[in-house]
Amino acid sequence: MAQRSCLVVDDSLVVRKAARRIIEGFGFSVREAKDGQEALNACRESLPDGVLLDWNMPVMDGITFLRAARQEFGPDHPRIVFCTTEAEMTRILEALEAGAQEYVMKPFDAEIIRDKFTQAGLLEEAA
User: Fold this and answer.
1) What number of other Cβ atoms are within 10 A of residue 27's Cβ?
2) Which domain covers residue 62, as residue numbers?
């Protein structure tokens, strides 16, 4: 089976590196983007299985990327997990209505990412 791929989109290098370590630990190949436009370009180049997506970024924010990706690539690919400090229910609902599969609050750890990736269909249920 081909290795699964994930794109980590965050304007913070520290967050990208932390997320990358965790996700690579689950056996994914990981690419990084620092904003939504860079992420969209990366998806056009090679569509990842999953995207871990920050909300607040320069150039193009997460929700704008999400809507553009859904319009361009359809409702199910890539599987998009929002990862943000935005805790308001209205924001969470906005992200899910726009097509995100899951929602992670920062700060996160490996266990949280594993749970959300499993719920989003990116990881198998642990036996």
Assistant:
1) 9
2) 5-119
